[in-house]
Structure formats: structure tokens, C-alpha cells
Write a structure and sequence with these properties.
- The chain has 81 residues and is mainly α.
- The chain has a domain of 48 residues.
- Helix content is 56%, strand content 0%.
- The N and C termini lie far apart (67 Å).
- The model has no long low-confidence stretch (mean pLDDT 89).
Length: 81
């Protein structure tokens, strides 16, 4: 159905980003995925006694972008002092 006069078709809206912005977003995406991967890897190999709470409870937490892996590394690991 064609758009009426004065209306915009939201499906055809495009945002053109500069190449530098695309590269920056790509790098941030890679860092975010690597951060989550490291949190999952650490969770899998760390002893149960060194993790606060049950390990399966940390899986959905780590899936929260940026905040989840940071929360795991800051609050989920018992640091020996």
C-alpha cells in the first residue's frame, strides 16, 4: 500500500553512517562478544567454591550486554585476599 501524501514510509528509512562510525561499532561489537566469551570461559573453568552463588545462575546474567560480564568479574568471583 503506497504512503499517502505527507506520510513517511518507515520501512524505507536508512541511516547512513560514516566509515569510521561503522568501524568503531564493529570494534565495540567484537570487544563485547570477547568480554562475554571470557566471562563464560572463566565461569566454566573456575571451581564452584570460587563463584558466588550457583554457576547456572550466572549464565543469564553474563548474557546481559556489557553489564553482565562486568558484574560477573566484579561481584561473581570470590577474590582471595
Amino acid at each position: 500500500m503506497p504512503a499517502r501524501t505527507g506520510e513517511t514510509d518507515m520501512t524505507k528509512t536508512q541511516i547512513r553512517l560514516p566509515v569510521a562510525a561503522k568501524v568503531g561499532l564493529g570494534l565495540l561489537s567484537v570487544v563485547q562478544v570477547a568480554f562475554a566469551f571470557l566471562a563464560f570461559w572463566d565461569l566454566a573453568w573456575r571451581d564452584n567454591d570460587d563463584v558466588r552463588g550457583p554457576k547456572p545462575a550466572w549464565i543469564p546474567v553474563i548474557l546481559i550486554n556489557w553489564i553482565g560480564p562486568a558484574a560477573y568479574f566484579l561481584a561473581g568471583i570470590r577474590h582471595k585476599r
